[in-house]
Design a protein that fits this description.
By secondary structure, the chain is an alpha/beta fold. Helices cover 33% and strands 16% of the residues. The protein has an eight-stranded mixed beta sheet, sandwiched between helices. Bound molecules: NADP nicotinamide-adenine-dinucleotide phosphate. The site of NADP nicotinamide-adenine-dinucleotide phosphate has 26 residues, from helix 1. GO terms for molecular function: oxidoreductase activity.
Length: 221
């Protein structure tokens, strides 16, 4: 397994969480899924929608080699920061006003930076937010395929970023290193990178143009 990654814990069993679960299972990872509900409430749905994955508690999901946050952004304060301490945590969440309402803490900041503040002892890495859940299952293909779709990876810890880059490649996507978590603002809704599908060169170009525009603090680490 890539960089010693064997298990993926997913917090959220909605559209994104279950799509990531199915793709991770295809790539032969061990997948554990949790929501805020008791395990018995999601066990049957997990068995039917993501056969091969294990329904677990959020604390158990947090013990996986990589943990994916796939819950509505405004619910981030319901996460157990102690359980996630020391873990590599992929933030696949986006701010979506009709769902998330007003979140004053996002003013002038990237949403993943806010998550990193909350999960201060975790290594937060932003990716998987800029692909639709339905595309995630359709667009992946083996390394070296012509025009392979790319996804960018942003995070402040180089080792954590490296592990997530390997995971993204295993899921079937070229992985583009976007640098720091602040640089990950270039992946948020409304950006060129967020809109549409890009190959690695196209995505790198979009990230570069975002940085050059001075939007947010998009300078790569
Ligand atoms: N839809 C897309 O194509 C897409 C693509 C990329 C990123 N995103 C982003 O990904 C996030 C999830 O979107 P979605 O469409 O998958 O949402 P969704 O279908 O509403 O699913 C959200 C899931 O999160 C669970 N949840 C809530 N609080 C939780 C907690 N503390 N711990 C664990 N699970 C918890 C919910 O279960 P319970 O409430 O039952 O616990 C539910 O299973 C959003 O931020 C969205 O913007 C969406």
């Amino acid at each position: 397994m890539e960089q010693g990654i064997r298990s993926i814990g997913i917090l959220g069993a909605g559209r994104v969480g279950t799509a990531v679960a199915r793709e991770a299972l295809k790539a032969r990872f061990e997948v554990r899924i949790a929501t805020a509900k008791p395990v018995e409430d999601i066990a049957l749905i997990v068995e039917i929608i993501t056969p091969g994955a294990l329904a677990v508690t959020a604390a158990e999901a947090a013990q996986a080699d990589l943990v994916v946050l796939a819950l509505p952004l405004h619910k981030y304060r319901t996460l157990d920061s102690a359980a996630l301490a020391g873990r590599v945590v992929i933030d696949a969440m986006n701010y979506w006003e009709p769902t998330d309402g007003t979140m004053p803490e996002l003013a002038g900041r990237g949403s993943s930076e806010v998550i990193q503040d909350f999960l201060a002892a975790s290594h937060v890495v932003k990716t998987l937010n800029h692909i639709g859940y339905h595309e995630l299952e359709a667009d992946g293909c083996p390394a070296g395929s012509p025009g392979r779709r790319a996804l960018a990876v942003a995070g402040d810890d180089p080792d954590a970023r490296g592990r997530v880059l390997a995971f993204i490649d295993a899921l079937g996507y070229d992985a583009v290193d976007a640098g720091s978590l602040a640089a990950g603002r270039a992946l948020e809704p409304g950006t060129e990178a967020f809109a549409g599908a890009h190959d690695a060169a196209g995505l790198a170009g979009a990230l570069g143009r975002h940085a050059a525009s001075g939007a947010g603090s998009a300078a790569a680490a």
